Amino acid sequence: MTAVTDHSQGDEGFRLSQLLYDTRYRSVTIQIIALLALIAGLGWLLNNAVSNLAAAGQDFNFGFLGSVAGYDINQRLIEYDSQMTHGRATLVGLLNTLLVAVLGCITCTVIGVIMGVLRLSPNWIVRQLSAVYVEAFRNVPVLLWIVLIMGVMIKVPPQPRAFRGDNPDATMSLWDSVAITNRGIYIPRPTYEAGSALVVGVFLASIVAIFAFRWFAKKRQEETGQILPVFWVGLGLFFVPAILTQLVMGSPIGLEYPELAGFNFSGGIHLRNSLIALWIALSLYTGAFVAENVRAGILSVSKGQTEAAASLGIRPNRIMNLVVLPQALRVIIPPMISNYLNLTKNSSLALAIGYMDLTGTLGNITRNQTGREMESVLLLMAIYLSLSLSISAVGNWYNNSVKLKER
Amino acid sequence: MKKSVFFGALAASALVAGAASAQTLAEVQDRGSLRCGVTTGLVGFAAPDANGEWEGFDVAVCRAVAAAVLGDGSAVEFIPTTGSTRFTALASGEIDMLARNTTWTFSRDVDLEFEFTGINYYDGQGFMVREDLGVTSATELDGATVCIQTGTTTELNLADYFRANGMSYEPVPIETNAEAQQQYLANACDVYTTDASGLAATRAAFEDAAAHIVLPEIISKEPLGPLVRHGDHAWGDVVRWSLNALIAAEELGITSANLEEMAAGTDNPEINRLLGTEGSLGEMLGLSADWAKNAIAVGGNYGEVFDANIGPDTAIGLSRGLNAQWTDGGLLYSPPFR
């Protein structure tokens, strides 16, 4: 009887109140309402933007990217002058962003790994120094570090004029090859003359040879157990053949030294203050986070692993390389990707010190000279987004290649 | 039903957005204060004094407009803007007017859609260098490092000038005048370039002003003036005629000393119309009859404002030059108050 009653209740058909009170439908109802609210919110924002642009009498187009920029950019990795387009200026800015991001990612990794390992050192002083570094850089906004380092770079080193005269106030360092001034650091630039292609070719070939030797050494070790001196052979291969070719060919690759000419040094490579300040500040700041990740990764490998390896008679540095690090990497890599992302995005703080990155060109001068705020900022966001997604994709690919293979 | 409410709200918000641009005068009167965009600090043009009170040549324009609209020259909220934030601030409605030594150009007027309401300073771009650099002309600046404010017309003029003269330079982009001063004084750049008036004002703030010279070349025309958004002509008229009132007052001999006396009525009908004792000019603008009197009362006529802030007796020491009345051989020429 009861069963029949239940059945008849089920047959009453679908009532509207079930959407709210029936647990089978409730979650769907809530999701649909949330989706509608989201669409409505986006629609309102879009409508607001469109109606305000219309009220201000402005259209929405990216034609300005093809018009003449009219401004100069000091640091250019590709050819650019003020008669080229805003699109080209944007590209120059993007390359400057990529330059500081790549340099920063490399140095922050080196600094972070060293400091992270030192933080686990048995030596009390080394451990505490590393802790001071991490806490000082991690807990102060990176913008302050950028501005501080820039301020020091402008105020402390001598001005180019101090290098002039018979008895100058300042002299160049490293056998007259490097000039450290308050407008940046000038370093020698390599010059390529006839025959230099051969030297470069030999160098590339020796790098291939290093990898081939490592592969051979690994194979031999697996087969015979004999260990070859991979490091020393690699080091020799890296330097000796290229240097020999350079000497035999009569030094086709030369160096162009910076020289004081007119107002500034000319020749050589000019590393501008803004680049150096941004690079150092971003590396030290992000390096502090990397150090903590490295420390966490190493601590995550249980002590039993180290002890077991030691009891098998493996030497300490091999324990680190063969047992601890491969396991620690799996913990270290995912947060490293987000550190690299942060560094790349923080590079937009370059605006504060006049480094002409993407934000400085497209997001500041182009936006301001053309009055296309909406278009410039949307394009800027799209570029940063694709940059970040690319970094994530590469990072995730690498993470997948080193993670524990579960079969 | 809920949907119709939503779309109703949507339509209403769109209407508000559309109409907002045409009622700045009413907004300022309701708010009881004028929001005026100025520089982040350029002594003589706009900078806070020791008590935090804004003062300067551009500030005086803001105060005159506030006095004309609200009867109180102190009812101004000063909003500091940089060269690259000023237009966004004005276009978005964050400020009612911009008085920030901004150059009137074709593209700013037509493409960026702003309305320049007159010229309060006729200027041109110059170069400042240290005297001991031994440079006497801008044509000797090949290879120099130049500090330049981003987002300005001077940035574009600089590129044009060096290209036209076949010279190279290293631009150091900076955001504010204070930053430029810091970099220039630390010798991180050889040259600082901006409007000649700005150079004089910056130089006046140096401890050793005599060690710096402004080169003789003026490489551009920089007509500086206040501006408002396109489309709100009633508000544009208020700003335009407030500035004209200051200029006309000097021409007609109205000063802060004789203002009360003149306002009691004179034999000159133009003075009477300007000061509201005759005709209904104030009513036509939607302001009180004594609007111009209030505007002049704040800091005196154009000449008094000039002398008090940037004139020969101040540290900045600019002479009137092009900014003299047309009757004295300058370019200042207010249309008649009729």
UniProtKB/TrEMBL annotation, chain A:
Where would you find this protein in the cell? Cell inner membrane; Cell membrane
* InterPro entries in alphabetical order: AA_ABC_transptr_permease_3TM, ArtM/GltK/GlnP/TcyL/YhdX-like, MetI-like, MetI-like_sf
Q: Name one GO biological process term.
A: amino acid transport
Q: Which UniProt keywords apply?
A: Amino-acid transport, Cell membrane, Membrane, Transmembrane, Transmembrane helix, Transport
Residues folding into a coiled coil are none
A molecular-function term among this protein's GO annotations: transmembrane transporter activity
User: What transmembrane ranges does the database entry give?
Assistant: 25-46, 98-120, 132-154, 197-217, 229-249, 269-291, 377-398
Membrane topology per the entry is:
Multi-pass membrane protein
- For whether the record's keyword set contains Lyase, the answer is no
Q: Which GO terms describe its cellular component?
A: ATP-binding cassette (ABC) transporter complex
Q: Is Amino-acid biosynthesis there in the keyword field?
A: no
Residue intervals of the ABC transmembrane type-1 domain? 94-395
Q: Which family does it belong to?
A: Belongs to the binding-protein-dependent transport system permease family. HisMQ subfamily.
Give the NCBIfam families listed for this entry. HEQRo_perm_3TM
What name appears for this protein in its UniProt entry?
Putative glutamine ABC transporter permease protein GlnM
The root-end lineage is:
Bacteria, Pseudomonadati, Pseudomonadota, Alphaproteobacteria, Rhodobacterales
- The gene that this protein is the product of is glnM
TrEMBL record, chain B:
Keywords attached to this Swiss-Prot or TrEMBL record, sorted alphabetically, are: Signal, Transport
One Pfam family linked to the record: SBP_bac_3
* Leader peptide range in chain numbering: 1-22
Superkingdom as given in the UniProt entry = Bacteria
Question: Which CDD domains does this one have?
Answer: PBP2_BztA
Q: Does the keyword Transport apply?
A: yes
Q: Which PANTHER family match?
A: AMINO ACID ABC TRANSPORTER PERMEASE, AMINO-ACID ABC TRANSPORTER-BINDING PROTEIN YHDW-RELATED
**Full protein name:** Amino-acid ABC transporter-binding protein YhdW
Q: Which organism is it from?
A: Pontivivens insulae
